[in-house]
Amino acid sequence: MKLPLLFIITICSTTLLSAPIFAHSCELSGNTAEDIMKYNQCVANQGSDSKLDKFRSSYEREIARLTSENIRLERRIAKIKNALATIMSTY
Asked: Is residue 7 included in any domain, yes or no?
């Protein structure tokens, strides 16, 4: 029951966090105030995109770490259950 739920959470998280990233370069196309404002906005957005990428990769690493830890703990619980079943069967 827990393994399929974990699998679904992992797939959903990966899908939501892996938005397509397009390479874009800012170019100043003229000397008007409007062109300069567009250029400045583009440069500002690129800075925030890199911050978002850092957060995204941080979240992806954390999800992967938690997923592997969850699997490890589920295996440990299964071993403990087997040990307890063995103990119970001997009495």
From this structure: no
